[in-house]
Amino acid sequence: MKIVVVGPGALGCLLAGFLKLKTTETVWLLDNSPERAKKISESGIRIEGMSGNHTVKIDATADARDIGLADLVIICVKSYSTEDASKEIKDLIAENTSVLTLQNGIGNVQILNDYFGADKVIAGVTNHGSTLLGIGHVRHAGKGDTIIGKSDGKLSRELKDVVTVLTKAGFPAKISKDIDSVIWSKLVINVGINALTAITRLNNGKIIAYEEARELLRSAVQEAARVVKRKRIKLSYDDPIQKVESVAKATAINVSSMLQDVLNKSRTEIDFINGAIVRHGKAIGIPTPVNEMLTRLVKIIEKSYEGSKD
Ligand code: PAF
What we know:
Rossmann fold, alpha/beta, 4-stranded mixed beta sheet, 20% strand, binds pantoate, 8-stranded mixed beta sheet, 12 strands, N-(1-d-carboxylethyl)-l-norvaline Dehydrogenase, domain 2, 12 helices
């Protein structure tokens, strides 16, 4: 199988590194920066953390034509780059190519469906935690499930092949027949934790330790849960507030992905997380004032970066 991981961020490097290390598949990393791709090709991907220390040689490029047609393309770019990445990967896509998204937030599957057709797109979430420490250098910070599925709930040989290869690479994967539920269930967790940690610069655990932050978390999650209910999406847990608080506790020392972005002065995925709740809420007449406020505050932080990187 020829596998292309698109995006050299924390998850992209972790996945590409372990796919190359633990499977016999052909693995490429596609970057949008030729300089960075060259550096990663020369130095490899360095992984440290809970799965040990590894340096993995890998082919990286910024030109999809170097790679040619692929069997599996895994999209790991930030959600706001999905549209651009879709244009860049067109030379990878054959009739039987599967395009898997493991990105955060809501909206990526729709963009990929529009570009490539829903028959090619596999949606998914992964609960592995990773932190980018430098170019091609990543810390594996937490293990968790990876769940994938097709929007129409159908099973296919491609889906099973993707589960097999991810599992071999150390990302034990399962198939869900209701992948929308899985994606929204993760979204609600990110809605409660990410913006609040990014604004307060607190680790995940602190936002449930401080009463004022905990109240905001609860209000944001309640709004999201109302939107989800009205959209008739079934969450994979019964009590959203309890679930989000338990994730914050379990990941207490984590620097959330959005706080990592803010600390790196990088653009965040706010539009695809709290911003998505605001958009969906507006479309169905559910007020979401707390998510609107959190979205605006994160956007103000983004605007305040000196010499922003994005
Ligand atoms: O985005 C993140 O950081 C993670 O999804 C989570 C679960 C909030 C843990 O840090």
